[in-house]
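Encode chain A's predicted structure.
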Amino acid sequence: MADGPLIVQSDKTLLLEVDHPQAEAARRAIAPFAELERAPEHVHTYRVTPLGLWNARAAGHDAEQVVDALLTHSRYAVPQALLVDIADTMARYGRLTLEKHPTHGLVLHTTDRPVLEEVLRHKRIQPMVGERVDADTVLVHPSERGHLKQQLLKIGWPAEDLAGYVDGEAHPIALVEDGWTMRPYQRHAVDGFWHGGSGVVVLPCGAGKTIVGAGAMAAASATTLILVTNTVAARQWRDELLRRTTLTENEIGEYSGSRKEIRPVTIATYQVLSVRRKGVYPHLELLDARDWGLVVYDEVHLLPAPVFRMTADLQARRRLGLTATLVREDGRESDVFSLIGPKRFDAPWKDIEAQGYIAPADCVEVRVTLPEGERMAYAVAEPEERYRLASCTPSKDRVVERLVARHTGEPTLVIGQYLDQLDTLAGRLDAPLITGETTVKERQRLFDAFRAGEIPLLVVSKVANFSIDLPEASVAIQVSGTFGSRQEEAQRLGRLLRPKGDGRTAHFYTVVSRDTVDADFAAHRQRFLAEQGYAYRIVDADDL
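Encoded structure for chain A:
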């Protein structure tokens, strides 16, 4: 205790001294339950939240382990009140359970009668529950299973769902491991999910989340609905499943804007499910079209609100969420927890890098100074215009040209948010541009040419944030982004992390305008990666 890297404070913040020799061990120890809030150079601030503690509890960590992690790594005495609070918070999870009763069907049961009395007095809870079965048990209508879990979480009594799952329609699926095997962490992830029955697996981009999905499908051997972010991702899932499993082309259907196939394994896009016409969702019947045994949510951190609402009704199905970042900028992590399920497996990025499964990365923030005229224009601009002005400065174009020249011959992506900026850059760099308007066919042609090494440089909009498999990309230059989105930053770095054939390091540059809102957003965006142990070097554009 005398000289640990952590300072534990009574307001539930943890300060981690980054340069301390044991900092990495401490970061690993607190990762299951603490969230990073701020990550300046020397001291990172983490916060312990109830949701973080319940996630840890669901993943199999108990209060003793959490307390032990804090006591082991703390420099000073840990406030007693905090330790008691952690133990109390974690003890809240599981006092209420949802179970299947042999005669009454779905019930809410408690091991602590006053808790049940307390929640039943809550006006939001009352309409969701039925008659009392006995002093410790109350009936729940099956359609309220998801909504009840949401509400119980909001009032601070998260219920553990032990009511089990329907098997769904059986459909044989097996992995075909010819020339490859599942990596140890992928196997752990499948086991962790299967043991819990539903929940979220968090793995870095490039670490083979699709394989975990395929492993879960093989374990279920049942009809599966896979929900993905866009059509390109749907095609990639399809190709990967054909390559890794016994499934044939006729068994996999695509349900998107262009095709409406319902097969034993159906891959649908979130957009199609979220389409609303005259106040109704016409494609929701997809959810009832088959007796699904498993629903897989790819990039679960992006779930749109309508899909949350549908998921609330799918509680009897096994649900697997896959993501690289369980952070949401709208703060709906608690809905992911209650409706998809708790975090079942989380592998720190650096651990997987150390095992050689993802490439090491060098992250650099390049700061450009706006010329006098642009600074004046920025100073007098309306607040909503400022980010665009700071992001799209022509000064960035010159920096990007220099960075591209520095990495000549290496597969490079230039990524941004604003189409006119990307248009200009594509012209200056003489590189193809991929945006939302590029047809799926053309996108696939360009991505294939990039993979084959025929095109060394692509300029891409945010369509490349998600589920795009570009294994050889080794340099990314980010010129603008979706305000301060942490998950986007993680996704973009993730494009580079597939291990390279020659073992080289990936380079991730983010070009930022100094003294503007662009720099503030950049600091926010970097938080998640700092949590994973990636440090950004800051260089001045003039020093390149």
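The chain has four domains: 6-92, 96-161, 184-353, 359-543.
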